[in-house]
Amino acid sequence: MNQTDGQKKKNRLEIPLFWFFILHLTLFLNSTTGVVSKFAGRAKFLSIRFFLLYTLLMMICISFAILWQQVLKRMSLTFAFMNKPITVIYSLLWGKFLFNEQVTLKMVIGAIVIIIGIVIGVSNDG
């Protein structure tokens, strides 16, 4: 292998695209725990709705744990954790669209910084 081949290999994603997608689907699923928790927290304590939402929350957590382990079988822990901050962006979107929370300029700038960090981290993984 010559130096050009080595440089090309360093500049491409070593994770199959399918598993990169599954990683982000898993992280998206993880972000829904905050949404379900917030709805459950608003439910009357010990009501049917309360129990249903907490049951859903537990199902999401179990599903996330299983998917996360499958993802980690196929990529490094470092790579997977480099992508985990994307859940902050998902949470920002959940807050805006489901709970009508205010999104500030600082939040948007923070989200952009997170995305840039993930892109840099992912492109330098190897």
Descriptive notes:
The protein has one domain. It has 6 helices and no strands. It has helices at residues 3-10, 17-42, 48-74, 77-83, 86-99, 105-124. Helix content is 81%, strand content 0%. Helix 2 (17-42) packs antiparallel against helix 3, helix 2 packs across helix 5 (86-99) and helix 5 packs antiparallel against helix 6 (105-124). The two termini are 17 Å apart. The model is unreliable at 3-9 (pLDDT under 50).
Defining traits:
mainly alpha, flat
For the secondary structure, the number of strands is: 0
Query: In which range does the helix fraction lie?
Result: over 70%
Structurally, the number of domains stands at: 1
Extract low-pLDDT stretches.
Answer: 3-9
What does the radius of gyration come to?
A: 18 Å
Order of helices and strands: HHHHHH
Shape: flat
Main beta sheet strand tally, sense and closure: none
What class, by secondary structure content?
mainly alpha
Q: So how many helices?
A: 6
* Euclidean distance between termini CA atoms: 17 Å
Q: What is the oligomer described by this structure?
A: single chain
In percent, how much strand structure appears in the residues? Answer: under 5%
Mean pLDDT across residues: 83
